[in-house]
Amino acid sequence: MKIRYKKIYGIFLAFLVATGCLADSKAGNEAQSVASVTVVPAAKAAIVFSSAQFYLTQNQAIPAIIPGLTGATPVLCGATPPLPAGLTIDPATCVISGTPTTLQALTTYSIAFSDQGQNVATSVGIAVEKAAGTLTAISLAGNTLNMIYIPSKTAYNGPTDARQAAAGGFEIAISEVSYKFWSDVYTWATRGTGSTGAGLYVFSNPGHQGGDAAGCAAGAVGNTQNPVTCLNWRDAMVWANALTEFYNSLNATPLAVVYTSDAAYTIPIRNSADGIYAASVSYPVAGTFDNPYVNPAANGYRLASSTEWELAGRYINDSNLDGDILDPGEYYPGNYAVGATASYLDFTATSAVAWFGNIVLAGTGNTVKTHPIVTAGSSATGLFDMSGNVAEWVFDWTPRCVGSARSARGGSWMSQATDMQLGLETGMAPYVETVTIGFRVARTP
User: Fold this and answer.
1) Containing domain of residue 81, as a range?
2) Helix (H, G, I), strand (E, B), or coil: what is residue 136?
3) How close are the terminal C-alpha atoms of the chain, in Å?
4) 270 close to 161: Cβ distance less than 8 angstroms
């Protein structure tokens, strides 16, 4: 049988041409190879900022916020809505720069430009805050109350920096309440005359000037600028209300009381006398001194929350403006005393910022009593005695003892160096008073 190879070959070539594998360029089915060409599409234009949010400081020039641009030659960069006062955006590069002058909450901006017919946009959040450590000094009948501002940030929590928590946007006193300040407000609140606080308060304890190993029954320690001691958590909470009403008696613009006995926030709690709760707790009965109604909108004086206290103690700076203090160099680690340059194991670093001791092991601390406030070193934002001198009541129940123990932070003059770790949290029943615990006040502006 004679096979017609030429005919079959021609049919095969025609098939290849038909399927696109070869090109039939000439009559007679002469095959010709074709080079393969891959078309790579142009990179899609995009704009990306290093962070989704930027927290800027009022009246401080910002480092230029430079976006990453992909496959783009921007034309007419712009922001919607207009950027905060003092900031500009470069129309050719989309770089944001300047000095923000007006405070504002976190606001989302659309940053957009055109590129060869493409409209390209991204979103970024910008907030403008008061500078951390901004000082407000208030004169109150011979006393000066110095408060610093702590912006809202996410920070580590605990001695090993194992947790994160957010707080901020509040003021906290640079020091513990001195005996003199306590006494002046106490006297007005318990013996004054009037219908808006003066003379209407009752306290469980009159307070004590400082403290040492002799205890609350002994005489005063040091001068009147030693921290007040020998008061319980209830006294501290009620005194904060008294301070608010004392402030209101001296100023035309009143502050709202924080702790009340009613859900409408109209009746200040003015009595911390133990009564039938001398050795028990009134929790969970709402509106009692162990479980007050807390007005979330009030701008009066109060105790800091435990998270607020720790954020204030850790704060150094937010160097990259990303809204947290989690990056190296932005915070004091949880095993440092507040303001220290090394951990609690370093005696020199710890003793520079904290009055602490160890009665059991003599000579391992640097004191055997309280000292006047603002005499040890401070933190980067200007806070004194956050570690040592006296431990400080904060508002919260201790996490494992809700309903039975309120938190105290910072350690005291009697504590060991290990207790100077700012991430530690201890607790005590709200009816207990001791020479090792005092407090400082906070407020929400």
Assistant:
1) 46-129
2) strand
3) 106
4) no
Considering the entire predicted model, what is its pTM? 0.88
Tokens coding 263: 């859900």
Task: Classify strands 391-397 and 437-438 as parallel, antiparallel or unpaired.
Answer: parallel
Which of 129, 145, 174 delimits the end of a domain?
129
Identify whether residues 109 and 254 lie together within a single domain.
Answer: no
For residue 254, what are the contacts with CB-CB under 8 A and spacing of at least 6? 247, 248
In tens digits, what is the pLDDT along the chain, a chain of 445 residues?
A: 444 434 433 433 343 334 343 344 344 444 444 445 554 455 678 899 999 999 999 999 999 999 998 887 778 899 999 999 999 999 989 999 999 999 999 999 999 988 777 789 999 999 999 999 999 999 999 999 999 999 999 999 999 999 999 998 999 999 999 999 999 999 999 999 888 899 999 999 999 999 999 999 999 999 999 999 999 999 999 999 999 999 999 999 999 999 999 999 999 999 999 999 999 999 999 999 999 999 999 999 999 999 999 999 999 999 999 999 999 999 999 999 999 999 999 999 999 999 999 665 555 799 999 999 999 999 999 999 999 999 999 999 999 999 999 999 999 999 999 999 999 999 999 999 999 999 999 999 9
Final residue of a domain: which of 94, 129, 164? Answer: 129
373 within 8 A of 175, measured Cβ to Cβ: yes
Output the CA–CA distances (angstroms, integers) from residue 187 to 190, 233, 267, in the order listed.
5, 19, 21
